[in-house]
Automatic annotation (TrEMBL):
GO terms for cellular component: cytoplasm. This is Type 1 glutamine amidotransferase domain-containing protein. GO terms for molecular function: glyoxalase III activity. Coiled coil: none annotated. Keywords: Glutamine amidotransferase, Lyase, Stress response. InterPro entries: Class_I_gatase-like (IPR029062), DJ-1/PfpI (IPR002818), Prot/Nucl_acid_deglycase (IPR050325). Transmembrane segments: none annotated. The keyword Endoplasmic reticulum does not apply.
Length: 227
């Protein structure tokens, strides 16, 4: 049966220092997109402000830019999707069966405070849909509250890019906050793989989270299984 998935991407193009670019980690979108497309599901892309979603330069270089990402980069129609993303106000959450938050460090700045994204997430979840994220995408779940006022992640098993991975990636000093600790502060039961930079997915009911870029395909496969 055909389902509809809403992908969430960032509008942020740089770290606090404007000379240091960041953006969407492209493969975290493309790997999931490929999984859902293979099943015939419909997909759309939204961002906090709508419009263009910049790309993380590091994710466009070998070996991180794999065949899935290269195919997207070479397809003008797909690249156009990232230059004209929808605004949250353009989206009717009743039209979607799942929401999938992509990552890249950019999302740490514009995902957590977006009330539009929070509204979409809450509505999809409370209609019985799947809420999912990969890597830094879990920053989009930090402040989402359900209709009863409780945090969506409180008491739930989740994963996302760990602080150890930030340190090993050499970017910890650039971070506006420690996402792992912020998730724990909200009562989430944060988990991570024993080894960094390996695929790791945590499923807690209709909440599916992947730890890092290597987890995108497996995260999407879990979402697809729930759908």
């Amino acid at each position: 049966m055909k389902r509809r998935i809403l992908h969430v991407v960032s509008n942020v193009a740089h770290y606090e220092d404007p000379s240091q670019p960041t953006g969407l980690w492209l493969s975290e979108l493309t790997h999931a997109w490929d999984v859902f497309a293979a099943k015939g599901h419909e997909q759309r892309i939204v961002s906090p402000q709508g419009g263009a979603s910049p790309l993380e330069p590091r994710a466009l270089k070998w070996p991180l830019a794999d065949a899935s990402a290269r195919d997207w980069l070479a397809d003008p129609a797909r690249m156009a999707l990232l230059s004209a993303t929808a605004r949250p106000s353009d989206i009717d959450p009743a039209d979607f069966n799942a929401i999938y938050f992509t990552g890249g460090h950019a999302v740490m700045w514009d995902f957590p405070g977006s009330q539009g994204l929070q509204h979409l997430t809450r509505a999809i979840h409370e209609r019985g849909g799947v809420v999912s994220s990969v890597c830094h995408g879990y920053c989009g779940l930090l402040n989402t509250r359900l209709s009863d006022g409780t945090l969506l992640v409180a008491g739930r098993r989740v994963t996302g890019f760990s602080w150890r991975e930030e340190v090993l990636a050499g970017v910890a000093a650039k971070m506006p906050y420690n996402a792992e600790e912020e998730m724990k502060r909200r009562g989430a039961r944060y988990e991570k793989a024993w080894l960094p930079f390996v695929s790791n997915v945590v499923v807690d009911g209709r909440l599916v989270t992947g730890q890092n870029p290597m987890s995108a395909k497996a995260t999407a496969q879990q979402v697809a299984a729930l759908l």
